Amino acid sequence: MHIKILLMQTNPSVLRQNKVFFLALFSILFFGATYLLYNGKAAAFISLNAYHPFLLNVFFINYTFMGDGIFALCLIAAIFFYYKRKQQGLALLYSFLISGLIVQVIKNLVDSPRPKLFFEAGQYLHFIDGVSLANNSSFPSGHTATAFAIATVMALMMKDKTWQLLILIAAVLVGYSRIYLAQHFLLDVIIGALVGSTSGILAVYLAKNVKGIKRSFKKMHRLSPASPSAAVQPV
User: At 120, is the pLDDT very low, low, confident or very high (cuts 50, 70, 90)?
Assistant: First the structure.
């Protein structure tokens, strides 16, 4: 009961202060979903991969690392130990753990083939040499979830809101890199972005209210009745 009340005490000013970020995020997700519904899974993937110059290949091969778990952990460590920002570091850590857990649960429940296995020989011709391609566990995109989780936390917790759109664009590019490198479909990226951004919002709330949540748990523990085993006295 106490946790439920605590979770309902969300400050509406968070939405007002970050309305540009949330509006842009919603617009991107809506456009992506509309494009996917209109074109279909395979056609949307192929149409988003029609242009593959050498420089873009090099860029996205390296840029996709921005959604890697190692990059996320290095960033979290830097925020904690170098910049000494505990609350922001906790929020980033929570978002990484929550999004990662959700992604892994879904991946294990939905065994979706990746583009390399999905397309028959000759259907798609832009596989990039040197890129190691997986066959399964396509849905959803873990890199995208991590990127959007980090971007959401940074956007919500930064004082200078003028950087929010650039941070969001950086996350979008990670999502597109997964399609460009033929690692995921558009649907995988959209759901990954949704998981990541939702995890980021929850993580920010948890980091800002961690003391209140701990007090609620302690209060619930004090009010809870003694366990039956504790009440039994030896004969």
Answer: confident
DSSP helix/strand/coil, 208: helix
DSSP 3-state percent helix, strand, coil across the chain (nearest 5) = 75, 0, 25
Rounded to two decimals, the pTM is 0.86
CA 91 to chain centre: 13
Q: Exposed (0-12), middle (13-18) or buried (19+): which is 56, by Cβ within 10 Å?
A: middle
Count of alpha carbons within 13 Å of 128, Cβ hemisphere only?
Answer: 24
- Whether the CA torsion 190, 192, 196, 199 is positive or negative: it is positive
* CATH code for the domain of 82: 1.20.144
Q: Which residues lie closer than 8 Å to 133 by C-beta, 6 or more apart?
A: 114, 115, 116, 127, 182, 183
Give tens-digit pLDDT for 50-80.
Answer: 899 999 999 999 999 999 999 999 999 999 9
- The DSSP letter of residue 227 is P
Range of the domain at 196: 18-211
